């Protein structure tokens, strides 16, 4: 037997756990936890989509810069993930507070979180706001993968990561 619901929050499961990092015009770096995330085009060009609520501090950074970085999250970074997902960059420099290492993106003006095994640099090509979240489609312009997740033939092995 099935129990019927009109709706409930976040009904599509399992949810991905990614960190989206970004930078504003003042040069402030920030990152937030994002579960509304997906691949949305696998070629010509490859794209990913992230959903950000307009009251997030990061939202205005992405609107301003039109770029973002998606960082994949392993289990051992759970504490950092939930901190970034429950505190706002409006009130503090979260990355500094957590002692996270950042590096400039190679192709975009946004920080890469180098403590995370995969960092995907994206340029916003489109966005739509069907509901609570503005969904930003980002063209993937550069991907950084920790060498332990690249095989001897140069092929990324992202299934080897123990994801949160
Ligand atoms: C597990 C988890 C998933 C989240 N997913 C999203 C999301 O998909 N989109 C979003 O805008 N906020 C999401 N949040 C909330 C933001 O990460 C949170 O509000 C954060 O503090 C915003 O930071 P900022 O104000 O520095 O941008 C999530 C939080 C958690 C803990």
From TrEMBL:
GO terms for molecular function: FMN binding; oxidoreductase activity, acting on the CH-NH group of donors, NAD or NADP as acceptor. PANTHER family: FLAVOREDOXIN, FLAVOREDOXIN-RELATED-RELATED. Its cofactor is FMN. Keywords: Flavoprotein. InterPro entries: Flavin_Rdtase-like_dom, Flavoredoxin, Split_barrel_FMN-bd. SMART domains: Flavin_Reduct. The keyword Flavoprotein applies. Belongs to the flavoredoxin family. This is Flavin reductase family protein. Residues 11-155 form the Flavin reductase like domain. Gene3D superfamilies: Electron Transport, Fmn-binding Protein, Chain A. It comes from the Bacteria.
């Amino acid at each position: 037997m099935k129990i019927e619901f009109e709706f409930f929050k976040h009904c599509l499961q399992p949810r991905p756990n990614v960190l989206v990092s970004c930078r504003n015009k003042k040069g402030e770096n920030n990152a937030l936890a994002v579960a509304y995330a997906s691949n949305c085009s696998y070629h010509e060009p490859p794209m990913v989509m992230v959903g950000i609520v307009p009251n997030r501090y990061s939202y205005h950074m992405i609107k301003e810069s039109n770029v973002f970085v998606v960082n994949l999250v392993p289990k051992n970074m759970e504490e950092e993930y939930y901190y970034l997902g429950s505190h706002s960059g409006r009130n503090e420099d979260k990355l500094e507070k957590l002692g996270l290492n950042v590096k400039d993106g190679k192709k975009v003006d946004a920080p890469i979180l180098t403590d995370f095994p995969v960092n995907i640099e994206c340029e916003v090509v489109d966005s739509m706001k069907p509901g609570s979240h503005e969904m930003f489609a980002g063209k993937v312009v550069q991907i950084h993968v920790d060498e332990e997740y690249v095989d001897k033939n140069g092929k990324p092995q992202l299934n080897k990561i123990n994801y949160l």
